[in-house]
Structure formats: structure tokens, C-alpha cells
Amino acid sequence: MNSKEFQEIIAQLKIEERTIQGFWNVINNAKINDDDELNHLVNSINHSWLKLEIHKISFSIIYNYSEFIEAELRIYLNDTYIGSYLCAFTLDGKDSDDKIKMEDYSFISGLIALEERNEEIAKSAIEEKVDDLLIQRLTGLTLERINELKKL
Known about the structure:
By secondary structure, this protein is α+β, with helices and mostly antiparallel strands. It contains 6 helices and 4 strands. The protein has helices at about 5-15, 15-30, 35-45, 105-125, 130-140, 145-150, and strands at about 50-60, 65-75, 80-90, 95-100. It has a 4-stranded antiparallel sheet with strand order 1-2-3-4. The mean pLDDT is about 90.
């Protein structure tokens, strides 16, 4: 199989879309998982802070076992990498396995606290009618996020 044929299989099986959906399924069902720290993080993160990026999709062979398609989704809290979501599909497109790998939970908790504080500062500045560009420079929030906060 050449790369063009593999890309056609990826598109046909909707690997990118299904990988992103699989991530949200894990996040939305975190309470079911046994990982209390992950559950706490998921409940602390404003989902609008998350940015998802398909990093790679590969064809893998585990000799004497299976062939599969593996996708890696990188997870960013705004622009900071915080983990990956890995999932595998059989060659006929069935879900095979998935796993979420997060960076150090203490580090992520610190980032969440920083984002919460930046939003508090932005909300106060919005109330005081401070210019959006100044709010952006002070907090690092995007103009899009500042406009969202104005609507709250």
C-alpha cells in the first residue's frame, strides 16, 4: 500500500473525525474511569481552553498478532502541550483500543489556575471598559476569548 492509498483509507474510515470524537467520549465519560486525578482535571478544565491537533496517523503491524491504524491526537491547554490521546482501529474501521496520556497533573493544575486567574482579570477589565488589546496583552487571552467573556 502506498501513502495515497493509505490516505484514502484514512478518509474513507473517517479516522481523524473518529479520533477527535473518541477523545471527547473519554473526556465526557471521565467519571466512569478509575483515574481520580484525570477526573478532577477534566472537571477543572474549561473545554474552550483545549486545542486538539491530529499529530500522526500510522499503519502498524504487531507480528503474529494484528495490523491496525493508530492515530495520535495532541492536546493543548491554549498553546501548552498537556497530553495525547492515542487510538487504534482495525483495518476494517472498527474501534480497537484507546488511551489518554497526560503530562504531570500538578503542572496541568497550575496551568488551569493561571487560565482561571487570567479570565478573572479579563472580566474585571471588561467591566472597567479597558481596551480589548490591552486586556489581551495583560492576560494572554485571544480577542475571540475576550469577546466570549463579554457575552457572559
